Amino acid sequence: MAVPKRRTSKAKGRMRRASNWRYEAPNGVECPQCGEYRLAHRACRKCGYYNTRQVIEVDK
Ligand SMILES: [Zn+2]
Fold it and tell me: Has residue 3 been placed in a domain?
């Protein structure tokens, strides 16, 4: 089994973990019905629409 010749320094490892640590709204997409952010492939929580039709009841 291959073994790394040098151990990654604390700074290098931390540098790597610090980058691309968090990105904005990974699965958020805008609802075409109300413009609100919703999860992709999920019915909109605000207006209950999914794929141009209402699929769940939402009380206002
Ligand atoms: Zn909506």
Answer: no
* Cut 0.70: pTM above it: no
Partnered with residue 49 across adjacent β-strands are 54
For the segment 4-35, what is each residue's pLDDT rounded down to a tens digit?
A: 999 999 999 999 888 777 666 567 788 888 88
What tokens does 43 get?
A: 């019915």
The CA 21 to ligand 1 mean position distance, Å, reads 29
Tell how far the Cα of 41 is from the centroid of ligand 1, in angstroms.
Answer: 12
Q: Does some domain include residue 44?
A: yes
* Total Cβ atoms within 10 A of residue 6: 6
